[in-house]
Structures are given as structure tokens and as C-alpha cells.
Amino acid sequence: MYTKKSSWKKGVAVLTLVIIAGAWIVLGRGFGTPVLGGESYEDLRVFAEALSLVQKNYVEETKTKDLVYGAIKGMLSELDPHTNFMPPTAYKEMQVDTKGEFGGLGIQIGMKDKKLVVIAPIEDTPAWNAGIKAGDHIFKIDNEPTRDLALEKAVEKMRGPKGTKVFLTILREGEKDPLEFTIVRDIIKIKSVKHKMMEDNIGYIRLTQFQERTAEDMKEALKDLEKQEMKSLVLDMRNNPGGLLKVSVQVAELFIKGGKLVVSVKGREGDKEEYLSASADAREDYPIVALVNEGSASASEIVAGALQDWERAVVLGTQTFGKGSVQTVFSLSDGSGMRLTTAKYYTPKGVSIQNTGITPNITVKPIKKGEEKESKFIRERDLKKHLENESIPTEEEMQKEGSKEGDQEVSPSPVASAEEQDIQLERAVDLLKGWQIFKGIGPAKDKA
Questions:
Q1: Taking residues 184-198, what's their average pLDDT?
Q2: Is 298 a catalytic residue?
């Protein structure tokens, strides 16, 4: 029976737990520089009081771990949308994700105005094959509303054993009624690099994510295309949500010679860390068109920015997502983890793309046949509590960020476009064909 005596003991236990936790925070993992001052101790005491009151007086039995986890989640939710807490199970799944294999649907999701939205479906996964699209609002999961549902809980609901089903109710712009999808979970083995040879010896590499093996897979793809006498390359990073920072540097240095800056990272105290290309045999002898869109985020923006700043590639497509922050993952003592935004990154020219994204050299919008209205996509600046870009202080200035001076904008005619056509890829191929043609044109010779 739950007695006052037992509740008093639990209150003391909770207070002791919080004091120990406070000491751990101050000292780090055993020893370190204190990070909490006097005011923080006072706030921690208030937290201990609240936790103790809940334990003693709440109408139902509570578990201390659940309350502490909830408090951590609440604390991190006050920060930016990419900072979050991962219970042990979710933390293990995150570690598996970076290796490129997990069980689920294959959807990159985020929160906007307390709504669960699709950032991008992962190519060749159950979600992709079912027709889930970037910008979709996941209204229900298995008939349960998702409003106010924590991001990690939503991920947990959609993960599961192969062969089991998930029922999603989707609200999509332009659709009057909700869309319903029954999707069968599968083992999601994400092959982050796909390649093929196209017409006129134009190589094509599709880069879907930045995983541990992505750079090695890229090297193998390039070797295969070069054996087939590739003369130019389309590097497709559309709907690539990002991944590991170190891997983005490894991919960029395949095309940028050694010693050149790929990306710089700056933390809260202004300390700057530079990542230079360490390549001794970077490919610099053929032109590249890098394809990007609103689903290209984080690591893919690092690569696109580096290639663009060093004039190693023409970036073509639409404005990218605009995630210019770096997250560090910390392991906690009970097997849980915390993803914390610790820095912002900058392109080689020192430009932050936070909230703005990479502006293509040539803008090509993927307008389908019969469409007159441009679709609205979720970008970094649409996410709740996003970090601001210090180089663009006002919203008005951000809205004025359009095509750079001298850049081109190409809007294909909706009448001439078929739904199945990939207009952006077609423009990239046309551009590389034109480069080959102009390369062969010499100065006019005097007529005899």
C-alpha cells in the first residue's frame, strides 16, 4: 500500500538522486570544469522540490526514471529543434541508423507548429514506394493523433519488426481530404550511393545519405564510372537529409584538392575549427553539376557549399533546407543519449546557411504538368525554435535572399513538362552537354 511513510522515503530518495545528478553535471564525468553557478543550484533545488511533490502527491504511482526523462525532454525542447533526448532504445536505434540499417518505414520527420511533418522520405523504402512526400503532415499514426506527440515517440511508433503494418493518416497541401496509407515495415537497408552511366559519357551518382561507409562507396562508384570513360558528372543530393559531418568532408575532398577548406565550425565561445581537404588525388579534370532541392539538408549542404565556393561544381535545383548547425551526441550513464547542437558551420567563404540554405547557381523548379502554384516545403526556418543566422539579422532580409547576382533562374513550362519527367536532371545533362560542345569550339579562323 502507498503510505505517507513510503512517500516520504521516496521523496528523500528523489532529492538525493537530484543532488547526485547535480554534482555529476557540475563535475562532468567524474572531473572537469564546473558549469553550474549559484543560480543554477537554486533552480536545481526547485526542480528537486517539484519532483519530490509529484512523487508524494500525484494521484497515481510514478516512476522516478520516467519523470527524470520527461524533465530532460522538456528542458531540451526549449532549445532548437535538432536538440533532443534519446532513451536507451532510441539511442541504440540512432547508432544503428548511422550504419545504414534499421527496421521501419524510411521517413525523415520533424516538428512544425507542434505538427509532425515529413522532411523527406528515404528513397526505395516502404514510405517512398507508398507515395509519402516531403511536406506531408502526419496527422495520425495507427489512428492516434500526433499533435503534441514528441518526435522520438513518433519515431518509436513507426519503427518495428519487418512485416508489421503502420497506418498513417496524411494531410497534404492541395488535397481536400486526408490521405490514408497502410505501409508494411521492412528492414531499411539504405544504400547511400547509387550510380550509372548516362548518355554522352555523363556519369550519374545519387547520394541519399551520409553514413559511415558513404565516402568509400563514393570512391568505388567514381572508379567504376571512370573506367567507363566518364567525361562529366551529375552529383544528385536531392532529398538528402544529411548525416555525419566527417563523412561530408570525406565526400567533398574527393573533388577538392588537398589543403583547401571544406567547412569551418564555430561554437558558442567563438572557437573555430577548420576542416581541410586531405586528398592527394582529388578529381579536378571533369565538370560537375550538383543537384539540390528543399530536401537537401545539413551534410549535403556542406558538400554543395564547398563545391560551389571553390567553383568546382555548378549547383542546380532549388533552395536547400537551410540547416547550418552541428549536433554532438553524448552518451549518458544509463545507456540513453542526448543530441545537442554545439556549433554552427560555415562554407569556405565564411557564409552561414542557417535558415537560408544554399542558393543554386541555376534555379530549376520541378513543376509538373498542369501545376500553376508552387508547392510549399518545410525548411529549417519553418521549424519551431530554430537557430537564427547572425549574418542575416532580420526576417525581411532573409526573404530578400534570392538568386545571387549573375545567377540564372529557369522555370520550365508546365505545358511542356510530363509528370514522369525529371526536369532538374534534364537541365543538368543539357548543361554538361553544352560544356562539351563549347569546349570543342575554338577561335574563329581567318578565311583565305
A1: 89
A2: yes
